[in-house]
Amino acid sequence: MSAIKETEQDHGQHHHHKDLAHHFDTLEQQHDANTLGMWAFLLTEVLFFGGLFAAYTIYRYKYSAVFEEASNHLDIKLGAINTVILILSSLTMALAVRCSQTGSSLWTGRWLLITIGFGLMFLGVKYFEWKHDYHIHLMPGKDWSGKDWWHWQYAKQAKEMEAHSKGAEHSYPDRNTVPPDNDPKFGVKGIQESQQARLFFLLYFCMTSLHALHMLVGFVLIGIIAYFAYQGAYSPEYYSPVENIGLYWHFVDIVWIFLFPLLYLLGAHMGH
Fold first, then answer.
1. Hey, where are the domains in the chain?
2. Which end of the chain lies in a sparser environment, N or C, as judged by fewer CB atoms within 10 Å?
């Protein structure tokens, strides 16, 4: 009877901690359950992105030559800059988790906001890159329907002009200089090449847009957790929310670490 009473007393004491949910016995058990749940969620995300990576791998092998040429139209410098930015954001996120573990609520919130700042910088660079891709007709859309070949020729001419003008901005070819549909090059081979290039850019924009969407979701969650951090909600005994959002953000960064070489470095060896 005494053992039962002691157990009941211990269980009652566990509920004295404001952060302990009623269906857990200890904070350690709650922390382990939260971490396991986050890893299970990230596993579903791996499967989600895995379908796109699998499609890319298959078509990369099937249309290797055109995929390499299409990759050469992406801006490696901007991709590398964004890679550095995301690596720095992973560092600031790790610092936020460490501060939450040591009980520094003020710096936990600060590092989380800095992480959001790096993420916004990433999306800012991506915006200018997408804007350029749109101007040279690399972005698939309704204007691609029936005009794949024309847009692909336009994009290749724009690439040549940029190379000769040393990367001058807004240096786009005249629409009238693009060969007409009755050009001798226009044929079955030209149509197939343009459709394969379109497939590369369709995968590129789907994968990078999905990655950007995950970043936007991360901004909201990080912002909420930063707010509670400034309220002193986290301590060395309870920091699971900060640690879990850290796992999510590191996953987002790792996805980009895979996207950068697969998409940007594929055609780097082709030179200018």
1. 34-270
2. N
**Gap between the Cα atoms of 237 and 119, Å rounded:** 29
Q: Looking at the chain, how many residues does it have?
A: 272
Q: How many angstroms separate the CA atoms of 83 and 14, rounded?
A: 44
- Mapped onto helix, strand or coil, the DSSP state of residue 141 is coil
Query: Domain 34-270: what homologous superfamily?
Result: Cytochrome c oxidase, subunit III, four-helix bundle (1.20.120.80)
- Cα–Cα distance for residue pair 162/17, rounded to 1 Å: 63
Whether 76 contacts 264, CB under 8 Å: yes
pTM for the model stands at: 0.80
Cα–Cα distance for residue pair 52/58, rounded to 1 Å: 10
pLDDT tens, residue by residue, 149-199:
556 666 666 666 666 665 455 555 555 555 554 454 555 566 677 778 888
Q: What is the dihedral of CA 119, 77, 253, 133, to 10 degrees?
A: 70
d(CA 207, CA 257): 12
Q: Is 85 in contact with 125 (CB distance < 8 Å)?
A: yes
Angle at which helices 64-71 and 27-62 pack, to 10 degrees? 110
Question: Distance of alpha carbon 197 from its chain centroid, rounded?
Answer: 22
Instruction: Output the pLDDT for position 122.
Output: 97
- Tokens 């060969």 belong to 179
pLDDT recorded at residue 232? 87
> Distance between CA atoms of 44 and 55, rounded to whole angstroms?
17
Rounded to whole angstroms, the Cα distance separating 229 from 208 reads: 31
The pLDDT tens digits for 82-110 are 999 999 999 999 999 999 999 898 999 99
Give the span between the Cα atoms of 61 and 68, in whole angstroms.
11
